[in-house]
Design a protein that fits this description.
Layout (H helix, E strand, L loop, with lengths): L3 E2 L5 E8 L5 E9 L6 H4 L4 E2 H29 L3
Parallel strand pairs: 1-4
Antiparallel strand pairs: 1-2, 2-3
Length: 80
């Protein structure tokens, strides 16, 4: 999960909710606006929505090559 910087400057920061015994209940985001005490801490880590989309696209493109390599390896291991 990433810190997302929205067009209006709001930061969407990932947060996890856990039970008292430490079990993960869910993941979500909390919005921080400029002036929030934690805002400056998260700002350097943030990506715009466009930067995030570009990063995901590059990962997907890179994943295609890796997936083909894995499938070839798997076929070879299965004797085919």
């Amino acid at each position: 999960m990433f810190v997302i910087r929205l067009a209006d400057g709001t930061l969407r920061v990932p947060r996890s909710l856990t039970s008292e015994d430490g079990r993960l209940i869910g993941d979500g985001y909390v919005d921080l606006e400029p002036g929030d005490p934690d805002y400056d801490r998260w700002l350097p880590e943030s990506l715009t929505e466009e930067e995030l989309a570009e990063r995901r696209s590059r990962w997907q493109e890179g994943n295609d090559d890796l997936e083909q390599e894995f499938l070839a390896f798997k076929t070879e291991q299965e004797g085919g």
